[in-house]
Amino acid sequence: MSPYNKPPSASPLRHHAADGAHADTIAVHAGREDFVALGVHAPPLDFSSTYPVPDLDAGMASIDAMVAGGLPIGSAVYSRLYNPTVARAESAIAALEGANATVAFASGMAAYTAALLAARARGSHVVAVRPLYGSADHLLASGMLGLRVTFTEPDGVRDACEADTALVLIETPANPTLQLVDIADIVAQANGIPVMVDATFATPILLRPLEHGATLVLHSATKALAGHGDVLAGVISTNDDTWLTALRQVRLLTGGVLHPMAAFLLHRGIATLPLRVARAQSNAQRIVELLLRHDAVAAVHYPGLANSDPRGVLGRELLGPGSTLAFELKSDDEHAPSRCMAALRLITPAVSLGSTDSLIQHPASLTHRVVDPDVRTAHGISQQLLRLSVGVERVDDIWQDLELGLAAAVPHLTHHAMP
């Protein structure tokens, strides 16, 4: 195997808590430890769809190793089985998570599906704490994967678990209401049943679920990890070798692989992740302060608010409130959210989050439209709820634009200029 195609060795930065490396440093250097030896300064980008197999015995051994959930021995044979550019991005994310390994997929939902398929081999039942990302909720409720699903509240996990429960699923902060879930409490309630945490909103900079007892941590890497709105990717990290093997096998069998160009861009985006998170979070905190004082806003949902964290998760598990918030318009007009989004000139009216630019969307119409209306209502996803992913622009420019939207949405109420 070419030196460019060798699987990345275990990162010396991986267990940052033990060796003292800070997340800011890990983000810059993880997955790049062998660059000096290779004589490069940027990650090699391997577009190969197939690899030479000059020795059939070695080729067979390599295929056997990968089918068993391991890494190639000699030739990687075929890029659906292994790609070195993807492996580098996986190594970087594992280092940030403090995980033994990460498995990358073509999208967040491909990763979510892979976890459920891996769980299906362990049992026929899963427990899911709502609210969840709309497509994840839809997938679970559809029954398409042959799993029975019990949806519950955070304090109902213990009672929801059954003898054949294979996995407990949570999302924190939750999409789109920013509800916080106490990971350690869920792990205790699960009593040995593996817990998977979707930590997309937090990123590994603000939350590392494996440190709090979770077995799996999932990210839609499309969002803040890549960070520039030009990548589709999903990742799952774990310290459990059995789950790691199962996830690699599912990816190999289903073909849900991450494209090497997406992996390259994802790896590049990770280097600035701590900087982007810090700036966007600072902006979000200021926007929340201003929304709370605005006459057109009925409620604001954000982990940094005192009434949003009754269990004291912030500071104990979650290291910061993040850059995504939601707010409800003070209006009975169902068209008010549409008017708000249409009036914006800087903030992009679009789904997704965690990009360098600010994005706003209407969950009831878009990300959570596929969720049963009664479920949406029960979990606070109202017609007047808008979700705002705050970017890294200058905060007064973001607010000035948002004021235009609020004035258009609820024109009879006075809007306030930034003090």
Rg over CA atoms, rounded to whole Å, is: 22 Å
The number of domains: 2
Q: What general form does the structure show?
A: globular
The structure class reads alpha/beta
Main beta-sheet strand count, sense and barrel state:
7 strands, mixed
CATH superfamily of the largest domain: Type I PLP-dependent aspartate aminotransferase-like (Major domain)
Mean pLDDT: 93
Ends distance: 62 Å
The CATH architecture designation of the largest domain is 3-Layer(aba) Sandwich
> In the CATH scheme, what's the topology name of the largest domain?
Aspartate Aminotransferase, domain 2
Give helix % range.
25-40%
* N-to-C series of helices and strands: HHHHHEHEHEHEHEHEEHHHEEHEEHEH
Under CATH at level 1, the class of the largest domain stands as Alpha Beta
Order of strands in the sheet with most strands: 1-7-6-5-4-2-3
Describe the 3D structure.
The protein has 419 residues and is an alpha/beta fold. It folds into 2 domains: 97-268, Type I PLP-dependent aspartate aminotransferase-like (Major domain) (Aspartate Aminotransferase, domain 2); 273-409, Aspartate Aminotransferase, domain 1. 37% of the residues lie in helices and 14% in strands. It is built from 16 helices and 12 strands. The chain has helices spanning 16-19, 23-29, 35-38, 56-67, 84-97, 108-120, 134-142, 157-160, 183-190, 203-206, 241-254, 260-270, 273-292, 336-343, 373-378, 395-409, and strands at residues 101-105, 125-129, 148-152, 165-171, 195-198, 216-220, 234-238, 297-301, 324-329, 348-349, 359-361, 385-389. The chain has a 7-stranded mixed sheet, sandwiched between helices. Strands 8-9-12-11-10 form a 5-stranded mixed sheet, covered by helices on one side. α14 packs antiparallel against α16 (395-409). It is globular and about 75 Å long. The termini are far apart. Mean pLDDT is 93; it is low at 14-18.
